[in-house]
């Protein structure tokens, strides 16, 4: 079956006449009749029946008409793609971090003329890597601790993904005004055991973090845990309850805009690697290079 046969079939159905359809299609009636007979033979159905006014569709013909109209409409959309100007897309996969969306706002402001579409895919570490590997995202942004580092680098090598290191951060405590710790200049990890912690749901790499110690306290000792799967929910919980969050210092200014403080942990001892990733041997788009330049300027300043 060919698309042209469906066009012939629909023209006959629309005009209700073989003669009129042949004239409209600039072909002879015998050739048109032969094309329809071949289509009927291939589908093993009868498409038309004759009456004194011309031809009308059978019930099977009516069904095929609906299917054919959908197919031809889709063909028109496909052909239309060639006529439209293709707008570049900047697709970023990122560990959930409030600051990345702000940086993408800066990218947007640089392209207000509509010359760029922006897509942010927030993922846990493993999914960030997989999203870049699959090509769904051009770049990935990662933050990983000492315990995760070896496994992450192994996975990146295995998947032929390039790691571009930006700097080393550490963990702080994020708290809102409802927390008794809000006005502290520094906290000890042992003090935090009395309060609930909010965090993202676990994946393979976050499970490794359970072996990590912060200021001499193992993460397994924190029993009061609230799980939130997106940044907006986490921010609201920090703003309006006494929960706390372990997070990097890199986002202190963005959290401060929401009234959330970033407080140092005494003798924290945790190193957080900050990096961006891409598929090896691929040339970055202009928008991706622009975003990388923003990261390279922002990360060193935000860490210190």
TrEMBL record:
Q: Which GO cellular component term is one of those annotated?
A: cytosol
InterPro entries associated with the record: HTH-type_LysR_regulators, LysR_HTH_N, LysR_subst-bd, WH-like_DNA-bd_sf, WH_DNA-bd_sf
Q: Which Pfam families match?
A: HTH_1, LysR_substrate
- Gene Ontology MF: a single term: DNA-binding transcription factor activity
Record-linked Gene3D superfamilies: 3.40.190.290, Winged helix-like DNA-binding domain superfamily/Winged helix DNA-binding domain
UniProt KW keywords: DNA-binding, Transcription, Transcription regulation
Residue stretches making up the HTH lysR-type domain:
1-58
Assigned protein family: Belongs to the LysR transcriptional regulatory family.
Quote the protein name from its UniProt record: DNA-binding transcriptional regulator, LysR family
> What is the native source organism of this protein?
Enterocloster clostridioformis
């Amino acid at each position: 079956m060919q698309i042209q046969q469906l066009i012939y079939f629909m023209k006959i159905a629309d005009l209700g006449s073989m003669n009129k359809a042949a004239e409209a299609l600039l072909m002879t009636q015998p050739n048109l009749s032969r094309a329809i007979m071949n289509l009927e033979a291939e589908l093993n159905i009868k498409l038309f029946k004759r009456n004194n006014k011309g031809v009308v569709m059978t019930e099977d013909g009516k069904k095929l008409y609906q299917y054919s109209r959908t197919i031809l409409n889709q063909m028109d959309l496909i052909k239309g793609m060639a006529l439209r100007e293709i707008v570049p897309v900047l697709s970023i996969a990122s560990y959930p971090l409030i600051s990345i969306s702000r940086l993408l706002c800066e990218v947007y402001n640089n392209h207000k003329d509509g010359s760029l579409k922006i897509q942010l895919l927030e993922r846990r570490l493993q999914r960030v890597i997989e999203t870049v590997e699959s090509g769904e995202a051009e770049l990935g942004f990662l933050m990983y601790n000492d315990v995760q580092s070896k496994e992450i680098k192994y996975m990146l090598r295995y998947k032929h993904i390039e790691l571009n290191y930006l700097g080393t951060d550490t963990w702080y405590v994020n708290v809102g005004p409802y927390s008794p710790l809000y006005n502290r200049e520094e906290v000890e990890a042992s003090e935090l055991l009395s309060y609930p912690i909010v965090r993202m749901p676990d994946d393979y790499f976050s499970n490794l973090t359970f072996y990590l110690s912060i200021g001499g306290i193992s993460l397994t000792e924190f029993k009061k845990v609230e799980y939130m799967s997106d940044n907006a929910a986490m921010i609201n919980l920090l703003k309006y309850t006494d929960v706390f969050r372990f997070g990097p210092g890199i986002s202190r200014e963005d959290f401060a805009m929401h009234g959330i403080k970033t407080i140092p942990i005494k003798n924290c001892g945790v190193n957080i690697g900050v990096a961006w990733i891409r598929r090896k041997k691929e040339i970055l788009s202009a928008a991706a290079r622009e975003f990388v330049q923003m990261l390279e300027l922002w990360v060193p300043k935000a860490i210190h």
